[in-house]
Design brief:
Length: about 120
């Protein structure tokens, strides 16, 4: 599970092909509830891949505000799946650190997106 950063703007918020100028902003391992939240966002933005694997979804400032509120309220959706492991609530501090980094990147004019390969 990755948050990536790019200096590109994409025509779509989902299912786009990033170019060569990308970098890793954040990494999670086995945090299925965050993945479930991102999957719901992906479909809300028009994503079409049923298993939400190896496809990006952009994260805007508004998305980050909703994610932050859901993390603080303990509202990430319980998510299970093959290879997913389990979220136990200890991830919140790291998730909030990611949001701070993502906001800074967006303020600098970069695009932030989530991408998972499982």
């Amino acid at each position: 599970m990755y948050a990536m950063i790019s200096d590109e703007s994409f025509e779509r918020e989902v299912d786009f092909k990033p170019g060569q100028n990308v970098g890793e902003l954040h990494y999670w391992r086995k945090h299925p509830n965050l993945h479930g939240w991102m999957k719901a966002l992906y479909f809300a933005k028009g994503g079409e891949q049923p298993d939400f694997n190896c496809t990006p979804v952009t994260l805007t400032e508004a998305d980050l505000a909703r994610l932050e509120a859901d993390i603080k309220a303990g509202n990430l959706p319980p998510t299970e799946g093959f290879f997913f492991g389990a979220s136990d609530g200890s991830e919140s501090e790291d998730d909030l650190a990611f949001i701070a980094k993502a906001r800074e990147a967006i303020a600098d004019g970069d695009t932030v997106y989530y991408y998972a390969w499982w």
